Amino acid sequence: MKNVFYILGLGALLSSSHAMAHAHHHGKPLTEVEQKASEGVFDNSNVKDRSLSDWEGIWQSVNPYLLDGDLTPVLEQKAKKTGKSLADLQAYYKAGYATDVDMIGIENNVMEFHVGKQVNSCEYAYAGYKILNYTSGKKGVRYLFECQDAASKAPKYVQFSDHIIGPRKSSHYHIFMGNDSQAALLKEMDNWPTFYPYNMTKAQVVDEMLHH
Q1: Quick one: CA dihedral 120, 123, 125, 129, positive or negative?
Q2: Measured between alpha carbons, how far apart are the two ends of the chain, in Å?
Q3: Which of 70, 93, 145, 205 would disulfide-bridge 124, Cβ 3.0–4.6 Å?
Q4: How far apart are CA 203 and CA 92, in angstroms?
């Protein structure tokens, strides 16, 4: 799988993606506004448009790590913090992380979705953002993109949520994918496949989640 990059020419990115992953993680420090936004607290006037380049790179699904039990320490930590049971959290994240997409490559407004040996790609156009108000009282922003090729088998509609509300490189993200409409996707609250930089090791992903 690692050497299959059909359209994007991502091989060059792979060679430097360890540095890229490192840069993703340790970019410029968050401002106070950005830090609060990452916790779901922000003023709507601070939300800004973003381009797909904020998510450029090669990304791996964390779903296999969850299914293999590698994320159990993360869930145990969350259980202690929230008072929820480990079983409840496992069920919540099993539904949340569920996806058959192993890897996503993004470059020059093209997204490439790897499902096993099958690869589907499309060029995406920005379709604005939506601010969501959650029942918890917190808020979130989803950035919307739409496939420009009707013949493509890639998802027609894509939404990114990464706890960021303005132009900034993403360090990980939740993605919503579908073919019905953006409106239908905005109602999806239970399934949010989550992706981290491809060249992060399993141990690095776990460490990042424990300290995020």
Answers
A1: positive
A2: 28
A3: 145
A4: 22
Q: Beta strand 103-107 with 157-161: parallel, antiparallel or unpaired?
A: unpaired
Share the mean pLDDT of the chain: 90
The domains located in the chain, with CATH, are 11-211 (2.40.128.20)
Q: How far apart are CA 79 and CA 87, in angstroms?
A: 9
Q: Is residue 168 within 8 Å of 54, Cβ to Cβ?
A: yes
Give the CA count within 13 Å in the CB-facing half-sphere of 152: 21
Q: What percent of the chain has pLDDT over 90?
A: 84
Q: What is the pLDDT of residues 123-148, one digit of tens each?
A: 999 999 999 999 999 999 999 999 99
Q: Which residues pair with 157 in a beta bridge?
A: 146, 178
Tokens encoding 175? 């993605």
Q: d(Cα 111, Cα 158) in Å, to the nearest integer?
A: 10
Q: Are 6 and 107 in contact (CB under 8 A)?
A: no
pLDDT at 27: 66
